[in-house]
Amino acid sequence: xxxxxxNPMSRGQIxxxxxxxxxxxxxxxxxxxxxGGNKSADFLAVNPMGKVPTVRHNGRVVxxxxxxxxxxxxxxxxxxLKPEGAALADYYRYTFFCAGPIEQAVTANSMKWQVPxxxxxxxxxxxxxxxxxxxxxxxxxxxxxxxxxxxxxxxxVGSTVDWGLSFKSIPTRPVFEAYAERLRARPAxxxxxxxxxxxxxxxxxxx
Length: 207
What we know:
The protein folds into two domains: 2-79 and 189-205, Glutaredoxin (3-Layer(aba) Sandwich); 87-186, Glutathione S-transferase Yfyf (Class Pi), Chain A, domain 2, CATH 1.20.1050. The protein is built from eight helices and four strands. The protein has helices at 12-22, 41-46, 65-75, 87-111, 128-139, 152-167, 174-184, 187-205, and strands spanning 2-6, 26-30, 54-57, 60-63. The chain has a four-stranded mixed β-sheet with strand order 2-1-3-4, with helices on one face. Helix 1 (12-22) packs parallel to helix 3 (65-75), helix 3 (65-75) packs antiparallel against helix 6 (152-167) and helix 6 (152-167) crosses helix 7 (174-184).
């Protein structure tokens, strides 16, 4: 059994999607923000950062959405979400490209932080435009990160694109829109979205 801590309005949705793709039993611990939730002593004992998503499997805690997705693909090979052979290069490359440079670029752009002229090499993402263009170029000649086959990399990269389009932190481009539409058609995507929407409605209905 996988123990899963999340909040419906957070990056926890990335791992919730992964959970639904696995088709394995898991328990969901819904956390509110604040002292009684993600900052509670009980949760801080699991993850001292007080961050979601967090999972515990076989007594081991895993944090960080990208790491969780790749870990779960590894330990549940029956789900066939980890590729083999040459496809592993793009699998790891673009998962961590989105977890690193794209995440940094989107955050900096949203916060309106400017990299000083001539200091691009010191920033992990270079520039926002270059990072986004590189992501677009990768997706322009394939259906999924590893070609024709959906993998755990698409859960993470796909969440980056899907959320980026929704919140306009990634520009609307045909390549991104087409990729997102392929992902949104997946049963597991629809399932985790419905679960999270129901939780949001439940919380909002609570006096």
